[in-house]
Amino acid sequence: MSKEHGRVVLPMGRGRPSLVLPIELPENSGACTLVWNQGFELHVCVQVPQAEEAPGTVQATVDLGEIHLAAVTTNTGKAMIVTGRGIRSLKRQRTKQLGQFARKQSRCKKYSRRWKKLQRAKNKQCRRAERRIRDLRHKATRNVIDFCIEHQVGTLFIGNPHGVRDKKSGRHHN
Fold it and tell me: What pLDDT is stored for residue 148 in this prediction?
């Protein structure tokens, strides 16, 4: 990958023309990869300077979940819960919409124009839901980090559910 005059040049191999993207990248950017995620995405590695020292001596623990995305507590008695209801409602909405599309598609001949039109609409809804879920997850992690900075957390412990998932506690409990 090379950067020149407000564009990125991605080599495609010997004997093939390079891809030229009219994108301005920051100076501290490194490797680039072009990734297919139901549409092309350019993933760029950017070096971020690490903090010299921790902002404080407070310790915090984070428990990750699905109903509550994160539950954060500090050893000073402060706590915060980030709810995951928004993501769950988006997933439910997406499932209901996909069911409606499937019902309409079942009445069409496979690969007909109408079927393809419904398939495109289905894919569009899926991509939109994934973007919205990704945005809500990003906002949740940003809330946790802002909470930790505000309360001068120096050490953050994140729960690992590995042992809980493998435990045979019955269908409902698991």
Answer: 93
